[in-house]
Design a protein that fits this description.
Length: about 180
């Protein structure tokens, strides 16, 4: 059993002193499944408040833990096959791995495991998960369906509003 009487210290290297991480995950080479990566690579950081980190997490899995746990607030964009209309945007605030939607590919397995690890070590940040509904994955295809493509602009607007709300409601300072 690991015991640590010290509170968690945010890692300055992985957070750059920022209190919010905006993370896009997915596989760019699997069509719509890569919408989170497309999102993160298309946003204009100047539209957002200061002190926000932006990260293309790709299918990074466990390698993303230091980035996630070093920010008190993490906003994730990912694809899901939840049976809703193509391009539907949903917001989840998962606290445990079972709260995440059904896996699409290996990166979600890693995300669920990361949540279990961070929960066990009490380093779990507040997570806001925006999912964009897709209906298929196409190997070796980098284009997005027009409805999924249109969701990128909409989810960007939602995330900008959320970052302002987080800032208004919290006064968390990072390392």
């Amino acid at each position: 059993m690991i015991t640590d009487d010290k509170p968690h210290v945010y890692d300055q290297f992985h957070s750059d002193g920022n209190d919010i991480l905006v993370l896009g995950i997915g596989n760019y080479l699997m069509g719509d499944e890569g919408v989170g990566v497309h999102f993160i690579n298309r946003i204009d950081p100047t539209q957002f408040p200061d002190r926000i980190s932006f990260l293309d997490g790709g299918t990074g899995g466990f390698t993303l833990i230091p980035y996630i746990e070093s920010h008190p607030n993490v906003i994730i964009v990912d694809a899901t096959m939840d049976g809703k209309e193509l391009g539907t945007i949903s917001l989840l605030t998962p606290k445990f791995s079972d709260d995440f939607p059904v896996s699409l590919s290996g990166h979600n397995f890693g995300l669920k495991d990361m949540v279990d690890i961070m929960t066990a070590f009490d380093t779990m940040p507040k997570i806001y998960l925006y999912t964009i509904t897709i209906d298929k994955m196409e190997p070796m295809f980098m284009e997005l369906d027009p409805k999924v493509e249109a969701a990128i602009e909409k989810v960007t607007e939602k995330i900008i509003a959320l970052t302002h709300e987080i800032r208004k409601n919290t006064t968390v300072s990072v390392g």
